[in-house]
Amino acid sequence: MMLEINRLSVNYGHIQALHDVALTAEQGSIVSIIGANGAGKSTLLRTISGLNSPKNGGSIRFLGKEIVSLAPHKIVRAGIVHVPEGRKVFAGLSVLDNLKIGGFLYKGAELQKTLDHVLTMFPILAERKDQFAGTLSGGEQQMLAIGRGLMAQPKLLLLDEPSLGLAPIVINTVFKMINEIRDSGVSILLVEQNARKALTICDKAYVLENGYIRKEGTGQALLNDPDVITAFLGESV
Amino acid sequence: MAITAFVQTLFNGLAIGGSYSLIAVGFCLVYSIMKFTNFAHGSMISAAAFVSYWVCNRFNLGLLGSLFAAIAAGALIGSITEFLAFRRIEKKSASNFYFFVSSLTWGTFVEQLVNNGVGIRALAFPKFYPSLSLKITVFGTKYTIMTNYLYMFVSAVIVLGLLFVFLYKTKYGRAIRATSFDRDTANLMGINVAMTIQIVFILAGIMAGVGGVFLGVKNKIYAQLGSDVVTKGFISSVLGGLGSVYGAVIGAFVLGVVEQFLVYFVGSNMARVVIFVLMLVFLLIRPQGISGVMVKDKA
Fold first, then answer.
1. Do residues B24 and B236 make contact, with C-beta atoms less than 8 angstroms apart?
2. How many domains in chain B?
3. The pTM is what?
């Protein structure tokens, strides 16, 4: 198993954001986590990547190794890369510098190889490589954020709301890229509010509500689940 | 104003501006990455100058040797400052007020150490230059410039040049810029943030050391050497636009030049008053500084 989370609980001050979360992701799969605002989706990703610390007793195993107490930069080294919500590109740095920072752990020929690969994958970034990242459009910034994440050569990519604030046509492109990335062998943990998209693309999905995992199943099963339909897909049954 | 006087004043201003820029850039780098004002910055200048003085006397070093001693001392002091005064507070993500108190306390402590080391009378570096001033002829006009100012200017330009290459051409420089923009996201890129902050303090210490030697040659070495000039460094970086390294450099040179012209026209006593008046007026008109980056303080 690529990622195996057990009994994970996280506090934000006095508020418990995650309760006993258990989750698994297999190599080469896309796993989606859907849920409303404040359900704990981002907290879950931030805890996996080490930005938030869980309460004692929780376990996050990645490729068989416990990573729960590691610092974020060491978790990147282990092969998990987190593309944060809101894209968080380094606005005052050039597109090229943003990408190179994504590949901070690599140098020389290896860095250049990944860079060439990412620039081929996202031709728009190659076109704009000398521009400040802050001058890109929202969709381009999302491409940059994903491209920057790929520069770290992840085995598992955590994507937090990649479709947030984007036009529908751009969202389609982003989801096409996500599929392509999976096909290249990178596993993906996808957090989305756009439930229909997220359930359509994934192999497995979890529904997170108030910090609890309420449901899990294949994307197709959840797409047909009456509770999911009323809560997230905006149709009455 | 005769052309000779103009050129000489301009040159003095650039030389003084060079020493301000070393202070301003160090201060600005720390500000950018930590988002707080490091009031201990001045003490690093005094301490590095004092250590350099001591090493220079002990081993009979010239200017270059003293500079290297100051660079080594500055790097060490910067690194210790970060580790002892700020690392713990940083880890706890404490409020800005603790940084303020910690930097004041640490700065005063270091300054007192230097004070005890120096004794009652200010210390002077040995004579580094064969002659205090140089006569240079350009296009048939003779100019007299201070030897110390010439070396100060050249060293500042070299150090700033190396710094910019480091910041813009190396991966650790990129890491510093990224971390200054967004610490959490930089961390997610595999950048060790604690180490990056440590590097920034070392850089600030190195520049404080180089500035300290030349200011020590100019003004002698005493405990408040640093805090006396650090205000100018603060002003420079605000003048340029807080948080922008380019801005800090430009601000420092502008400040140095304006100050020297004021000295020429209204005398050094009045210049000290007028420069602060100009500064206040500038802040009223353009608080975001020359480069126009308005930095939000750490919440």
1. yes
2. 1
3. 0.92
CATH of the domain at B54: 1.10.3470
Contacts of A104 in chain B (CB under 8 A): 171, 174-175, 189-191
- In CATH, the architecture of A3-233 is 3-Layer(aba) Sandwich (3.40)
Contact A152 B187 (CB under 8 A): no
For the sheet with A3-12, list strands across it.
Answer: A15-25, A3-12, A59-62, A65-66
Expressed as residue numbers, the domain containing B145 is: 3-285
Separation between Cα atoms, residue A195 and residue A157, nearest integer Å: 19
Strand pairing partners for B168? none
Q: Where are the domains of chain A?
A: 3-233
Hey, are the CB atoms on B190 and A105 less than 8 Å from each other?
A: yes
CA atoms within 13 A on the CB side of A100: 22
Q: What is the pLDDT along chain B (299 residues), one digit of tens a residue?
A: 788 899 999 999 999 999 999 999 999 999 999 988 899 999 999 999 999 999 999 998 999 999 999 999 999 999 999 999 999 988 887 788 889 899 999 999 999 999 998 888 889 998 898 888 888 888 888 888 999 999 999 999 999 999 999 999 999 999 999 999 999 999 999 999 999 999 999 999 999 999 999 999 998 999 999 988 888 888 888 888 877 898 999 999 999 999 999 999 999 899 889 988 988 898 898 888 777 655 444 32
- Judging contacts by C-beta atoms under 8 Å, the chain A residues touching residue B178 are 90, 93, 97, 101
